[in-house]
Structure formats: structure tokens, C-alpha cells
Specification:
It is built from 16 helices and no strands. The longest helix has 30 residues.
């Protein structure tokens, strides 16, 4: 058996297809959504089955992304070693794997969590796996802005898994990730501008140039900061979260300004890396603040008590 054939059956290749680091960040956001939906502990069955189902459906959509972009991935340095791009996993194998993950995830969510969470995950799967990957990514330089909505939904999934409803608090968390997505991806697009241009993907730096992209990153970072302060403004979180959001937001603005000045050639990649740390820490602080409020001031929960829509 050749080395190439041996690689086809490697579990690591299939794991890579699911974009595990991206899924882990999604699960963190979904986990925070779960805990923010209740003043106490999330039921253990909802916690386990909810996160399992969300991970499976997200992994399925990621596999579709690998399959659809294989010809592009093979021509970009960042992605040329991906399993489908190199042929270690065939198209039919990847498609079957995606179907298996998606069906299993939907079954777990529908039968062991609630139908609402299952349908929300299916809508996100269609949005990211099909609408964004097959159409938006190649159709418009606003691909990240529009497509970002599909990737911003994990907190809503988590909240719905616990409450079986769509509530304002969950939508606010979605708004934060939605505002975070453009500066996050455009920073990477700046670093990989030539690669995106070579494969005809109309990322903003390719179609409108770097100066405008840097300005857009700065403006969206301001929008992100404003969005991140809204949980405190409506009484959903307390002073601990406010301090964390301001500190993390100041760091993001710093990198956005460094990008705008354009004197540091490593700024795009550093901004991209910071954006990942930013989102993870912001949601951790939100979670810690939530239980700090529960323990220290249970009577002063939210100004809204988050009535279902």
C-alpha cells in the first residue's frame, strides 16, 4: 500500500475536514449562550447533547467547504495541504462523511434537545455550507459581511437548546459575532491578498484595495466595540464584563489603528490572531460575569428578563 493510499484512511484527515479549531470556538460561544439562558446550571443532558449536535452539524458544513473549495485550496499556500486538496480524501468519501455528521447531528438535536435548535442549525448549515461557500464567497467582496451571519449563530444555538425559544439576549450575542467577523477575516485577507487574487476570490483587498480595507477594518472594529458594550447597557451583564469588553476592545482598536497607519508588515496577521483571542476571552468574561451577578446580586438579574420573541 502506498503512502498516499495509507493517508486516505487516516482519522486525522477526517478530523481536519471538520475544521476543529473553528468548531471549538463555535462551541465556546454556544456554551456561553447556554449558561446565559439560565441563572443556574444547564441541565447536563442538554449540555452534552446540545454541544455534541452543534459540533456535528458544524463539522458537516466545514467538510462541504473543503469539498467545494478543493480546487482553490490546492492553489493557496495556506490551504494547499488540506485533505481534499491533496487527494488524501476523495470527493465521494468527503461527501459521505459530511452527510453522516450532518444527519447524526440533526438527529441528536431534534430528538434529544429540541426541534427549534435542530432547525436553526440546519439553517446555518445551508447558509454556510451552500449559500456562502458555493455562491457568496465568489460573488461579492461583501461575502464575509453577508455570510458572517451564518457563522454568528452559535450563541443562539446554545440559548435555544436550553430555553427552546429565540430571545433578545441570544440575538445580541449573535450581533457581537456578526460585527466581529469582517475585521477578523479582512485582516487575514490583507495578509493573503495575492493568494486570493490568484484564485479569483473577490475579497475586499483584491477588489477595492488595501487602504479601503484597512479603513473598513477600523470602522467595523468601532461597531464591534459598541456592540460588545450593549450587554452592559441593557443590564444583561455587569461591571466585570464592562471592564473586560473595554480592555479587549481597546486591544482590537489598537491593532486596527496599526493596520490603518500601515507601518507594520506583520500587522494583518497579528490582527487576525488577536481577533481570535478577543472573541474567546470576551465570551469567557461574559460567562464569568453572568455567574458573578447570580452569586452576588441574584435579585438584580437583567433589566429585560429576556421575554421570548
Amino acid at each position: 500500500m502506498s503512502e498516499a493510499t495509507a493517508h486516505i484512511t487516516s482519522w486525522r484527515d477526517y478530523l481536519e475536514l471538520t475544521k476543529p479549531r473553528v468548531v471549538l470556538l463555535m462551541l465556546l460561544c454556544a456554551l456561553v449562550g447556554m449558561f446565559l439562558a439560565v441563572p443556574g446550571m444547564v441541565p447536563l443532558d442538554i449540555l452534552i447533547f446540545g454541544l455534541t449536535g452543534i459540533a456535528l452539524v458544524a463539522g458537516s458544513a466545514a467538510v462541504v467547504n473543503h469539498l467545494a473549495d478543493a480546487h482553490i485550496d490546492a492553489r493557496m499556500a495556506r490551504t494547499e495541504h488540506r485533505p481534499v486538496a491533496t487527494g488524501r480524501v476523495g470527493f465521494a468519501q468527503g461527501l459521505a462523511f459530511s452527510a453522516l455528521l450532518g444527519i447524526a447531528g440533526m438527529a441528536v438535536l431534534y430528538f434529544l434537545v429540541n426541534p427549534l435548535t435542530a432547525w436553526l442549525n440546519l439553517a446555518s448549515w445551508v447558509g454556510y455550507g451552500l449559500i456562502y461557500t458555493l455562491f457568496l464567497k465568489r460573488a461579492t467582496p461583501q461575502n464575509i459581511v453577508i455570510g458572517g451571519l451564518f457563522g454568528a449563530a452559535p450563541p443562539l444555538f446554545g440559548w435555544a437548546a436550553v430555553s427552546n425559544s429565540i430571545e433578545p439576549g441570544a440575538l445580541l450575542l449573535v450581533l457581537i459575532i456578526f460585527a466581529w467577523t469582517p475585521p477578523h477575516f479582512w485582516a487575514l485577507a490583507l495578509d493573503r491578498k495575492e493568494e486570493y487574487a490568484s484564485v479569483d476570490v473577490p475579497m475586499l483587498p483584491v477588489t477595492h484595495g488595501e487602504p479601503l480595507t484597512r479603513l473598513h477594518i477600523f470602522l467595523y472594529t468601532l461597531i464591534l466595540l459598541a456592540s460588545s458594550l450593549m450587554p452592559f447597557a441593557i443590564g444583561m451583564s455587569g461591571w466585570l464584563y464592562l471592564a473586560g469588553a473595554l480592555g479587549l476592545g481597546a486591544g482590537f482598536i489598537y491593532w486596527a489603528v496599526v493596520l490603518l497607519i500601515n507601518r507594520n508588515p506583520r500587522a494583518p496577521l497579528e490582527t487576525f490572531r488577536y481577533s481570535i483571542v478577543y472573541l474567546g476571552l470576551l465570551f469567557v468574561v461574559l460567562l464569568v460575569d453572568h455567574y458573578w451577578l447570580v452569586v452576588n446580586a441574584p435579585a438584580s438579574r437583567s433589566l429585560l428578563e429576556f421575554t421570548p420573541l
